[in-house]
Amino acid sequence: xxxxxxxxxxxxxxxxxxxxxxxxxxxxxxxxxxxxxxxxxxxxxxxxxxxxxxxxxxxxxxxxxxxxxxxxxxxxxxxxxxxxxxxxxxxxxxxxxxxxxxxxxxxxxxxxxxxxxxxxxxxxxxxxxxxxxxxxxxxxxxxxxxxxxxxxxxxxxxxxxxxxxxxxxxxxxxxxxxxxxxxxxxxxxxxxxxxxxxxxxxxxxxxxxxxxxxxxxxxxxxxxxxxxxxxxxxxxxxxxxxxxxxxxxxxxxxxxxxxxxxxxxxxxxxxxxxxxxxxxxxxxxxxxxxxxxxxxxxxxxxxxxxxxxxxxxxxxxxxxxxxxxxxxxxxxxxxxxxxxxxxxxxxxxxxxxxxxxxxxxxxxxxxxxxxxxxxxxxxxxxxxxxxxxxxxxxxxxxxxxxxxxxxxxxxxxxxxxxxxxxxxxxxxxxxxxxxxxxxxxxxxxxxxxxxxxxxxxxxxxxxxxxxxxxxxxxxxxxxxxxxxxxxxxxxxxxxxxxxxxxxxxxxxxxxxxxxxxxxxxxxxxxxxxxxxxxxxxxxxxxxxxxxxxxxxxxxxxxxxxxxxxxxxxxxxxxxxxxxxxxx
Length: 583
Description:
This protein is mostly beta strands. Helices cover 3% and strands 47% of the residues. The longest helix is centred in the first third of the chain and has 14 residues, at 2-15.
């Protein structure tokens, strides 16, 4: 701090008091204070361009102050040594010239990092770190001060890439190999990879990593990379003898949900026991090795976009680049099928109904992809769609033959509106009976209409007179309301779909009434609509009242032990304070 005060005094002596009063802030009309890399005041330039230059000895003592009333001119460069360097090298450069104190140094080559800049009035010393990514050829170097700038050139010489590792270090022909190092081109085709002189294909490339496969005809020897005629050092690789390597020609379906779980079929050659699969560099479960040319795998979860499919066994690797594409939509799954596959004595007038987890793409619902056949013969009929296209019904044009087996086959060509294929194919069959079903089902609701003192944790049971089509029982056709709100819950089926249970997501409010509505759109497996209170196709409604602050708790859990207990006639205050009953 003392040095700064004394230098200001000296400047004031040189240029009179008004200059001394200028603050240490640089503006167009005020003094500029320039410090060297050691933090010492090097120059002071006033608003008229007058300059005071400070000279120090080796230990920092102020030796002299020189004054230039003509102003400081722009920097000049008279020499630049060295003015070339190889990619990947670190070069110490020196520039000489005039008016260089406090100058900054920069280049237009983003691959050159300028560091350790030291300036004097007549010289600049700096370090150029030249990356392998630096553009080869002449680059502009700019020296800049407050009074102007000067330019010169520095030439980057291309250098050979450097290999640091090859992984693995041995393997059969077609084995995937990763080469690491520096100086590679990010454009795959500009890297010429050789295994002991035999050219290999570059599958992917970054500045530091290359992926390739051991080429046919390769022998044990060095792996090298050549770019623009410059060849790298060699890293040894041992080529192992093996049987015929796998090949991969097709993936079907080749698109699916990012959530994974979809089945897909791989087609190729030389699939053997122990073969593994990766999709997008993530392991896929091999579900079935069908043959040496076919296997079925389960796709792993990933991110949206294309992914490579890699088949690996002891004989080598097969790669299908961008062989699978992940889509953002949810998986497309089968919810329920009616009639139930495997049953016999199915009414001859029964349609086939399938529910899906997502709305279907109608264009993918055809008699080829949604095939209903008797033996090898397709059954004629029409498709209808319901419940926001999540339920597809195939209605045969004529009554089915008596005592005959029919087959339903769904393929993965069926897609959701998101473009996601069915998560797996399906095949099933049923056998018809001798007659048709023309009788509408009826339903009994428990708790019954008008019931009182119903426990608030009760479930709703729907008992049907015959098996119903579960695809027609959902939140649209069966719902429960209480206190002006539709209650959330789940529906489960039993006894070959002759009853359904609605389990509320949370208990009812004590003493509150609830209404159960079953719409006439509910049908049996033959498509006959519900017989409601107003006739066929009408609704059935049941209303009950909750218990008067009573209830039951079937079990309690303490410390990991489940203790059976039952509380009855549990009395709660009529307006409990601080208690929030379940709604």
